[in-house]
Every structure is written in structure tokens, then in C-alpha cells.
Amino acid sequence: MVTLTINGKEVKVKDGTTILAAAKSMGIKIPTLCHSPDLKPWASCGLCVIKNVDPRTGRARMARACCTTVTPGMNIVTDDAELRNARRTVLELILSNHPQDCLKCSRNQNCELQDLASQFGLRDIRFKQILKNQPVDDSYAEIVLNRDKCINCGRCVEVCQDVQKVFALEYNGRGDKTMIGPVGGVDMAHSPCIKCGQCASHCPVGAITFSNPITEVFAKLADPKLTSVVSIAPAVRAAIGEEFGMAPGSLTTGKIYAALRAMGFKYVFDTNFAADLTIMEEGNELLARLKSGKNLPLFTSCCPGWVDWCEKNAQDMLPYLSSCKSPQQMEGALTKTYFADSIKVKAKDIYNVSVMPCTAKLYESQRDKNMKASGAQDYDMVLTTRELAKLIKMAGIDFNNLKEEEADSIMGAYTGAGTIFGVTGGVMEAAVRTAYFVINGKEMKPVELKAVRGLEGVKEAVVKINKTTSVSVAIVHQIGNVQAVIDQVREDLKAKKAPRWQFIEVMACKGGCIAGGGQPYGITDDVRKKRSAALYKDDAKCKLRQSHKNPEIAKIYKDFLGKPLGEKSEKLLHTTYTKLDNYRD
Q: In whole angstroms, what is the distance from residue 124 CA to residue 475 CA?
């Protein structure tokens, strides 16, 4: 423990604690802009400047609180007239290079720069406004870069390079000519970007956003020729409440169903249903590979950011990738076939919308011809959690006071296994529950597989199915952790020895979908844990907790699909992969 003084009060904190964190422990808020508790500090903006006063001479040296660690006997001043003036000057300089179009900005009323300007009472700026006048990079609809709004805080670069290790973004130029953009001066579509959206999630302003025509939804809902259908992903229910002032981890499933109906959707489904379906297909795929001993380990394929990364960076692993589509695309294909047939409507006359926690899901819905398994585009619109919240507000719906409703029954029922798909380890846990039953003819007890839970970057376990069968599994989340797992698999294959893991779950974002690039801003490990806890709570309260027990899943196989991995399932629910260049021509 280290003893120091902050604003005249003595405090003890752990060695290695930053001044910023030490002050926070005392209820003192030092302003920051480049700092994110989710990333390593790198002291870019200078807003968190404080004074370290020498008790012997009274001389004060300025330091940046986000990256300066405490030392014994420090005498810190976090606020006085000089510091306030310095911080105001930093803010004015940033605003002198920033557009003043807050009313039209996607981050209006949810912008860290706007909040700080208000906090410091800025009404006039002493410096001449000089904008970068750079064109908007909208070569990707999923990740749109507006350099004029960029404040060079560097968060996007840090998360892209240090956390995800994708290296799609970098600093270009030097000094006041510095600009952040895709590597090598190309556009986003020709960079190694995997559309995970973590850059957008960590941007404090409106410099990285989407170009999704979300208001088109209202026009389509009003079209009498169209039958509107919507489904929501597992992780959305644990996060959207934050957009309406609720605490992180508030479970709002029934309110979302009610809001979607109030917006005008005729049918409301739940992608958890398709998560259960994915387990039936992927679980049987795993059992088939275990039986044949070929193409092991089996990698999960429900994360489009991971699939895109694999197609670009680990093409030798594509034969080991599950051929199963993601729950989103399974839901989409069945909505425009099985469901369309049941209500006697043509696929082209269904307006099908998906609500996802992920920006890469926009890309996935149109990635290739496999996403038109119904003969039409299986999904017509993919909304992120943040975008759905905007539409609910635009529709004048009082989300917090809505009475909870249920999903429609034909493709809305789900088990606890389906809901935990939204958290890292959830796919693996759900699959093991069903694999155990298929092999043993009885349910696994306890049903929870806690060895695969938590935020450790790479987790592994050996699951004993029975006296003669065990399955070795690995769970990796945050794309920057994937390479080490791939290297181990390659080493095993080269040595022609049994793989260390037989089944590997991969999620591109830390924590899984609960922290996807389309979720509410302000993600931290504390928020991840609370959102995860909400999904585990939803699982625990479900009467049915194994995918194979979902009665609607049993019905769809009996009435339509036939059997897992059958001819119709292969056509509608499975996909293929393509080798892609990291830098496209």
C-alpha cells in the first residue's frame, strides 16, 4: 500500500495505482477524454493534468493523472484556478478543430466532448476554427469514418491495434497534421478491418459510426404490401435498457417485444430460438467429426467478425470452421421459408429485420449468396442495439413503462441454452449440454458448465461426457487472443498428434456479444460482468435449459427440416467460406 495526499486528505491505495484511480476512490472526478477504463492509458489529450506539489519547496510539477502512478508521500492537487484554465484551453483547442453540428450528430446528447464542454461552461472559443476538411470514408456501411469529427484521442487505434490486433487503423502524419485513418492511406474497405465495431464503441465522439438507413424501417412498416417480422439477439435484452437510463445488466426482454409491436411489427420472434437450432446442427456436426476423427478441432462460426478474420488471416483453418450459419442467418432463412409457408406469404413480401449487438452482423447478412437461401435476401435490415433504441425514441414509446409481452410462438420460444449464446463461453456450454444428452440419453447434472465462464482471454476445460468419452474445449474471446490458439492448433496438426482441443469457441469481442460493437457506449469489464450476469439469470429462470428440449425446435424438424445435417438443413442452415485478401484490390 502507498500513502499519499490528495487535495489535503491522506489516502492509502495499492502500489501501481494511477493518480486518476486514487482520486476516484476518494470521490474526486478528474476530467478525461482520451482515457477509457477499458484500455491502457496513453496520455494523449492532457485534460487530466494535475499538480504534484513538493512538500519541502512548495514547487508544483504538472503530470497527467491517467498514466502517472502513485508514489509514497505524493502531495496531489487535482483542481485549482490554474488547472481549470489549462483544461479549458485544451478543450477550446480541440473544439477549434471540431465541427459545431451537434444537433445533426449521431452522438448528440451522448458525446463525451459535448459533456465536457458543458461541464466547463464553454460558450465561446478563443481560437479560430480550422477543420480538416477530409472526405467521409463510407466505403463500409458498417464502419463509417468521419475524420472531421475525429479529435485524435487515439482510442480507436489502441483498441484496433493493442486489443484486437487487427491493425486496420493507424496514425497518419505528424504534429498538427496527424490524422487517424486506415493503414497505408487506403479506405476502410481495403484495410484489414473485420467490422467488429470496437473502434466505434470506444470513440468518445461521432467520428466513427454507421451509414445504416434506419428510418427506412418506418416506411416499410407502413407498407400494406409487406408482412413485417423482427427478431432480437440474446445480448440485446441485457443492454438496451442502458439507453433508457437503466442500470447495466437490466433484463428487458418483454419490454423489447412490446416496443417492437408498438413500432408496428406484425410478428416478433427471438433469435434465441435459432441459437437453440444452431446447437442442434453444430452439436451433431461436432459428434460426426469426433466419430470420424476428421477436421478436428471444430471452430464455432456464429461470430462474423471472427469468420472474416479467419478468411483473411488463417485460411488454413477454414476446413475446421463449422459450416453452420450464425443464429441470425438461420433465423432469417427459416423466416422466409418455413414461416412464410405457414402464413402463405412469398419470401419477397416479408420485410425481415434483425436486432443485433454487433456491427459485423450488417456485413454478414449480405456477405454472399448463402445469405439468400430462401431465394430472396434473408434479412432486409439489420439494426444494432443502439439503432433500435433510437427508433424506439423516434416512435415516442415510453420504454421504461411498457408492460412486458411474449414473443410469437412459431419461432419465438427458447431455452436457457439459447440465451447464453450472447456471452463468451455460452455457445460451448449450450453445445455440451446437448452433446451430453445425445451420447448418454440423459441430462447433464449440474446443467451449468462454470469452467467456461468468465473474462479470462483463453479458457480451456475437459468435459467428461461418460466413462469412455471426454471432450477437450477452448474458449477464446477478443480477436487479439486468437492467434495463440491458432498457433497451438497448427503445431498439433504439423506434429500429427491428437489436438489439444476438439471444440473451440471464438468470439471477436471481449466478453462476447454482450460487448459487441453495436451495444450501448461505455463498455468496461464491470459492465461486461453485469450484462453477462443478466443472461445467466435469464438461463437460470428458464423452465427448459437445453436446446434439444425446445418444443418449437422439435416441431420444425418434424414438419420442415427433417433432421440435423439433413438435406434441407444443409441447404438453408449451412454455409461455405472464401479465402480473402487482407488488403483487397
A: 52
Backbone phi, then psi, for 449, in 5-degree steps?
-120, 80
How confident is residue 584, by pLDDT bands cut at 50, 70 and 90?
low
Sheet holding 9-13, edge to edge: 9-13, 2-6, 75-77, 49-53, 60-64
469 burial type by CB count under 10 A (0-12 exposed, 13-18 middle, 19+ buried):
middle
> Helices in 222-334 by DSSP H: which ranges?
253-263, 271-292, 304-313, 327-334
CATH code 3.10.310.10 for 2-79: no
SS3 letters across 461-521: EEEECCCCCEEEEEEEECHHHHHHHHHHHHHHHHCCCCCCCCEEEEECCCCHHHHCCCCCC
> Can the peptide bond before residue 446 be classed as cis, meaning omega within 30 degrees of 0?
yes
Give the pLDDT band (50/70/90) at residue 348.
very high
pLDDT digits (tens, 9 = 90+) for 534-564: 999 999 999 999 999 999 999 999 999 999 9
CA angle, corner 25, sides to 20 and 29, nearest 5?
A: 50
Please give the single-letter amino acid code of residue 277. L
Give the per-residue pLDDT at 506. Answer: 98
Q: Tell me the CA end-to-end span of the chain in Å, nearest whole number.
A: 56
Asked if 264 and 351 touch (Cβ cutoff 8 Å), the reply is no
Would you state the torsion angle of the CA atoms of residues 507, 509, 514, 520, taken in this order, to the nearest 10 degrees? -150
pLDDT at 179: 87
CATH code, 93-209: 3.30.70.20
* C-alpha dist (Å) from residue 349 to 319, 471, 502: 36, 45, 43
Residues 355 and 232 sit within 8 Å (Cβ to Cβ): yes
**Identity at 533, one-letter amino acid code:** A
By DSSP bridging, strand 208-209 and strand 144-145 are antiparallel
Q: What is the DSSP string of 304-363?
A: HHHHHHHHHH-GGGGGGB--BPPHHHHHHHHIIIIIHHHHT--GGGEEEEEEES-SHHHH
Q: What are phi and psi of 552, to 5 degrees?
A: -75, -30
Q: Beta partners for 462?
A: 472
Please, which residues have CB within 8 angstroms of residue 72's CB and are 6 or more apart in sequence? 2, 3, 4
- DSSP 8-class letter at 209: E
Give the start-to-end residue ranges of the domains of the chain.
2-79, 93-209, 216-573
What topology is assigned to 216-573 in CATH? Rossmann fold (3.40.50)
DSSP codes joined into one string, 20-58: HHHHHHTT-----SS--TTS-----S-TTEEEEE-TTT-
More confident: 21 or 133: 21
> What is the enclosing helix (H) or strand (E) of 532?
helix 525-541
Neighbours of 91 (CB within 10 A): 22
CB 197 within 8 A of CB 188: no
Q: What does the block give as the cell for 502?
A: 476438439
pLDDT in tens, 200-209: 999 999 999 9
